[in-house]
Amino acid sequence: MKLRLLLLNIISIITNFYSLLVRDRKKNILIFRCGGLGDFLLETVAIHRLRESFPKEQYEFFYVHRSLNSETIPLIIPVDHVIVFREESFWQIICSGVAIWKHRYSILVNMSDPRYPLMHRIIGLCNAQRKIAYDYPENRFSENEFEPFRKEYDCFVRFSWEHDHVMSMTLNLLKELTGKTFSLPEYKDYIKIHESVAGEKITIPNPYIVFSLFGSGDNHNLPDEIVNALLLYCARKFPDYMLVITGAPKDKLHTQSLIDYLSECADKLVDLCGKTSYCDLYKLAKNAVCVIGVDTGTTHFGALFSPHTFVLVRKHLPELFWPYPEKFMKNVTIITAEQCQCDTQCLQCLRKGVITPCMRCLQIEHITKSIEEIIG
Questions:
Q1: CA-based torsion, 160, 166, 168, 174: positive or negative
Q2: Cross-strand pairs, 242
Q3: 16: Cβ–Cβ under 8 A, 6 or more apart, which residues?
Q4: Contacts of 97 (CB under 8 A, 6+ apart)
Q5: pLDDT by residue (tens digit) across 158-199?
Q6: d(Cα 95, Cα 90) in Å, to the nearest integer?
Q7: 245 — phi, psi (to 5°)?
Q8: Torsions phi, psi for 337 (to 5 deg)
Q9: 212 closest CA partner among 232, 230, 236, 187
Q10: Does residue 306 carry a pLDDT above 90?
Q11: What are the C-alpha distances in Å from 134 to residues 112, 128, 157?
């Protein structure tokens, strides 16, 4: 690992020196986003406002995410060039770094969180007059994750817990860059951006419910018995509804086992794991009766665009799913376990000496009761 970082440093010095020799190169604004689809969705309005504030600059968007592609991104946010970070091999990592190191930037905007140290190192080596990054709360990440890349940046934009939503950070970012105070985005701002890019390749007959039940890691994953019981309940409770299951390509085997297990309602299940783009998810959420899911990008689409969204999270995580101001949460129901249900205290329940019920503590009766109260 140390050798790889040393090589990256040497190559970045060479390419940065090259960027200084090329006098006529246009100065750009580089926007970096690595991480969740939900965070990118929230930032679309901020990037549009940034473009309006600096209309003459060229914009590059540097990202890594499976649900985004270089053809889709310019349809959603006003950028001139898209650079995809590849990390399948060290050579691809070097090529990704050189793609940005060879330019001189007027502003670098790092919209990511500290969980990707290699990415932050690569971005931090850019030749930029001004480097700004998000500064997440100390209790969100460990010191080892948070500290290594801080020295690369000139300014950090604080997360404002008093506003109770992640949007506050993008608003603070815009204020830092432009000196102007921006108002909170409205629903219409997001609708305006996304309406023209709705997916066309996937058509599901109405009515239907969208499910996003496969999260990343134990903090977000539901136990199989809850997933099975929830789908079976919805199939019986809403016999006229199609049940649309979304997820990553790696979730296809899991979905197929669900379909085999729920043979009595297999004709109502639609497997879209690995088949949906960013634009498809917008269309699916907007036209669904509701979205039911754990903390995933699809569920974030539901929170913004679906008539109603049910979010299944462990007890200590609701505040992390609330990146929206209160007025945006009127169509969202957060469902958590009220108390620990594990026979023995598991490591997921016992965190930092405090018992916080994990996803296995969720009760199907509690989930179905919440759905009945809203959907009927």
A1: positive
A2: 208
A3: 101, 125, 126, 127
A4: 8, 11, 12, 15, 122, 125
A5: 665 444 566 777 788 888 888 888 888 888 888 888 887 766
A6: 9
A7: -105, 120
A8: -80, 135
A9: 230
A10: yes
A11: 7, 16, 5
Q: Answer yes or no: are the C-beta atoms of 199 and 283 closer than 8 Å.
A: yes
Which residues, other chains included, contact 25 with Cβ-Cβ below 8 Å and sequence gap of 6+? 19, 103, 104
Mapping DSSP to helix (H, G, I), strand (E, B) and coil, where does residue 279 land?
A: helix
Q: Is 235 helix (H, G, I), strand (E, B) or coil?
A: helix
Give whichever of 42-46, 65-69, 124-128 has the largest mean pLDDT: 42-46
**H-run or E-run covering 358:** none
Q: Residue 289: is its pLDDT beyond 90?
A: yes
Give the C-alpha separation, 345 to 358, whole Å. 10
| Tokens, residue 347 | 């490591």
Write the burial class of residue 122 (CB in 10 Å: 0-12 exposed, 13-18 middle, 19+ buried). Answer: buried
Among the listed residues 214, 258, 251, the one whose alpha carbon sits nearest the alpha carbon of residue 235: 258
| SS3 letters across 114-161 | CCCHHHHHHHHCCEEEEEEEEECCCCCCCHHHHCCCHHHCCEEEECCH
